[in-house]
Design a protein that fits this description.
It contains 6 helices and no strands. By secondary structure, it is mainly α. The radius of gyration is 16 Å and the shape is elongated.
Length: about 130
């Protein structure tokens, strides 16, 4: 079960990264690179929540999970934002590929935290008792 979740999380991550990067490039035409990064990150995080709820953890999206889900990306956001800054302003390597390079380091932490939020207690969706609304 956890192996399927890791693989699905990775696939969702690739899709989410592609969406993020496409939005980043789109916004980069009108915004400074950090503004483009923040806006693209926030929008792709919403998509990531729904994709992970449906495909990775097979759990019903709730407002509670939706409001907690950004916590899964706090580390990712801090690491990628710092990385983008270092790559662009310190290393002068250019803003086009900076987010892709900066995002890889936080992925394992994001999986662990998202699993705890989406599946409280670390159990799979099939192991939890169903609650009626």
């Amino acid at each position: 079960m956890i192996l399927r979740q890791i693989v699905t999380f990775a696939v969702v991550g690739v899709v989410n990264t592609a969406v993020y990067y496409g939005l980043y490039l789109l916004f980069l035409h009108r915004l400074p690179y950090l503004g483009a990064h923040v806006l693209a990150f926030l929008l792709s995080m919403v998509g990531s929540f729904f994709l992970n709820a449906r495909f990775t953890y097979r759990t019903r999206p709730t407002w509670r999970k939706f409001l907690l889900f950004p916590l899964t990306n706090v580390t990712n956001f801090l690491v990628t934002t710092a990385g983008v800054y270092v790559i662009v302003d310190v290393l002068h390597a250019g803003s086009r590929f900076a987010p892709l390079l900066a995002s890889a380091a936080a992925i394992p932490v994001t999986f662990v935290v998202s699993r705890r939020i989406m599946l409280p207690g670390g159990r799979s969706a099939g192991d939890r008792p169903r609650l009626s609304a």
